[in-house]
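It is worth pausing here to work through a concrete case rather than discussing structure prediction in the abstract. The textbook approach is simple: state the sequence, then state the predicted structure, then interpret. We follow exactly that order.
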Amino acid sequence: MPSPIALSPPSPPASLFLKKKKSSLSQLPPFPTATSYLSALHEADARARGQVVTPTSTPPLSISSSLTSMSGDNAPIELTDDRSGLTFPLTAPNSEQVFTTVHTEFGHCANQNFRCVSQHDSGKPVGEHKIEEPPYYILLTTYFSYLLLIIFGHLRDFFGKRFAKSYFTHLVPYNGYAPLNSDFDSFYTRRLKRRMDDCFSHPVTGVAGRTILVYDRYSEDCNYTQIYPGTKTRALNISSYNYLGFAQASGGCADAVEESIKRYGVSMSGTRLEGGTCDLHHIAEALVARFIGMEDALISSMGFATNSTFIPALVTKGCLVVSDEHNHASIRVGVRQSGAHVRMFKHNDMDSLEALLREVISQGQPRTHRPWKKILVIVEGLYSMEGTMVDLPKVVELKQKYKFYLFVDEAHSIGALGPHGRGVTDYFNIPPRSIDVLMGTFTKSFGAAGGYIAGSKALINSLRSRGHSGPYAEAMTPPVLTQIVASMASIMGVATAPNSKAPSHTPAVSSRADEYTHPGMAPVSALPSWLSLPPSLSDGSEARERIRRLAFNSRYLHAGLKKLGFITYGHPFSPIVPLLIFNPGKMASFARMMRARRPTPIVVVVVAYPATPLVTSRVRFCVSGAHTKDDIDIILRACDEVGDVLDLKHGHGERWPLEEIMKRSVELVNSV
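Step two, the predicted structure:
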């Protein structure tokens, strides 16, 4: 029986492919390079189509004696030969370096050169993101691939409904019942997505930190079903929303969550307006308002529902919503439910936005041409599929000129951007209260769940009763609230006395109303009396390190991929780094090759239509402050090799060899 935790590559069997009924890409053994991976695929297909690999055993593992309190999937594991760097750092720390985190959850990196400050240079204009176009043959082959899939899919449906009816009973009228699923609507899912289902919804276990434990699985029926042999593989995690690395099973935040469960239990068993509100909700909302720099805030137990249930309380029939064309689905759902009229402008194009504003203000409502009751412009601080950052200074300038209300969704930017982690307003040094509504989530940077809406006290009081989340959604649970409070307080730093001055890294409070005033540190009175954070968290020093590490990692990966010749989207400081793949077949191959690499498997997220335009399939890297510089080197090396095999390097800029990129990483980051 193989070990349940596979941390190192198994010994190869005498014969790679043994006789069985069907073959699966997921059953292939690990290969050190993409070339050997494809060679084995070709050999398997040529020699025997119905062959699989027999399970092999892994070396015995032992629990490290340094952390005996941990057990199960999260326990650190001691290997005799950890060439992957997943369990222990590739560069051993010296006697003066002490780390309080588990390397598998939050990587050990003491080199202060691998740090960067996320801040806009006010002396430079906000740069426009230039989209590189691939060669025409890439676009033509991509369209042709989709065309082939559609043609053969319809042919299989035509003959299948006549000669294999048992597979189509859910798509045709049966026994007097209409089909639950539409044949046409489910075509894309059945004939295109199912071919690469092994790349999606991969089950994991343990902490989704710097590394992650992935359940091994394979399919013998073209992804209709998945078979789990019972083994797991630890892989480098570049797919989770864990920007600051607070998703940990140990440490000050985890200890606080454990204490909250002892005091409050695991659920409030009610809605916010019907007995589900406790003191932790009031504490968290007050802390969020202070952290954001707004008068008041309210929290919701689900990030998606924060937009979809509160936007209908902001605008109604007779109002106009001006929305960026790449805004999140939650915003679209909320606007549709509101009954307001909606117009879209080109993504992050301020000229398009201003032209649209001129038109809608001058023309008024359709047919009647009456003035709009109100105009609400909705943008995102950081766009999740593109990695681009809103041109907030220009949007605020237009707001002052045309007098519209501004709603900024900071789901991906809060915590991840700005020298103090306060989001896109902190990055551009813009007063938060110059924006009417600030929305964000706790999933990405705080290791928690849910979302918030921040604004004026009058607005928030109205939303508490008019928003659908108040009377209908379950209240946020105490453990999640505690994680939010602990992680947010560690970013702010906790003042030891009510009149304590902010540390030197915090800007001084300005007497001028038009200048930015930083919210400052969190007073002790703003936290639960029983909450005790370690000194490194309470003084804010560890959180500042996390923010600076995230900024370096984001810029390094973005710049490194550019220098390797890939086409990437996004802002250099964005923790979301999309790498364009285009062809749907290459998308599946990329994910499988990265996962099959040894000694360091890499888990990535691949995204295609309808989440993106048809021809811009991509892999979306989610960088974390938990990653080390060595981790980014591993990712760049893997992308360099796989990119050569799959012909993905179509960028037009200057190219550097991989070794030069890794050697000159600091110079590269500072020059972006």
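Step three, interpretation. Residues 1-29, 48-72, 75-81, 498-517 have pLDDT under 50 and may be disordered. The first strand starts at residue 18 and ends at 19.
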